[in-house]
Design goal:
heterodimer, A: mainly beta, seven-stranded mixed beta sheet, four-stranded antiparallel beta sheet, 57% strand, B: mainly beta, globular
Chain lengths: 117, 115
Amino acid sequence: GAVVSQHPSRVICKSGTSVKIECRSLDFQATTMFWYRQFPKQSLMLMATSNEGSKATYEQGVEKDKFLINHASLTLSTLTVTSAHPEDSSFYICSASEPQGAQYEQYFGPGTRLTVT
Amino acid sequence: AQKVTQAQTEISVVEKEDVTLDCVYETRDTTYYLFWYKQPPSGELVFLIRRNSFDEQNEISGRYSWNFQKSTSSFNFTITASQVVDSAVYFCALSEALNFNKFYFGSGTKLNVKP
C-alpha cells in the first residue's frame, strides 16, 4: 500500500519557538492531506484539510495563525506550530488521500510527538 | 453531536479470551464508510477494515471479525482468542458521502490483553 512519512518523529522545543512538521506521500501524489491532533489517551481530532496549491481549510476552533499549513507540492504538506506553548504538546498525525478510481484511499503517517518545554 | 461513539474506554482480558469492541455511529447520509484502526503504543495507526454502507455482510479475517448492523447503527469488532500483541487502542471511524476524506473518529477503546 501507499506510504506516508512524517518528519520528525519526535521533537522537543522550548516555549515560544516555532516547529515545522513535514508530511510526505512517498509513492503517490496527494492532492489533499489532512492534519490531526491527538492528546494523550484521547481521540484524533481533525485540525485542517490541506489542498495542494490553495489555502488550508481549518476546523472550527483551530487557530489558523498558530498552526500554519502549507501544501506546496503534490507530495508534501507542512504544519508549523508557531510560538509553541506547553499546551501545544501533542501527537500530530497527517494523512494523505490518493484517488482510486471514483473513490479515495486515505493513508496515515506514523505521527510526530511534539513536546514543548 | 458525536458521530462515532465507543462507549468502552478500556477493556482488560486474559489471553485466549474473545473480546468485542463496540462502535455506534450516527449519520444522516445513506452512503458512508466505516473503519477500524489499531493504534499500538508506537502511535502509528494500522488500518484494519473499511466497510461501505451498502455492504452489511459480516467479515472475518483470521482472528478478527466485524458485525455491521445498520438497524442499530453499529459496527462491532470481535477478536477471537486474543493475544498479548493485540493490546492497543482501537478506533472506529466514519466518513460520509459529503466528504469521504473527512474522518470522524470515536474516542477509542484501550484493549489490555494479559498473559
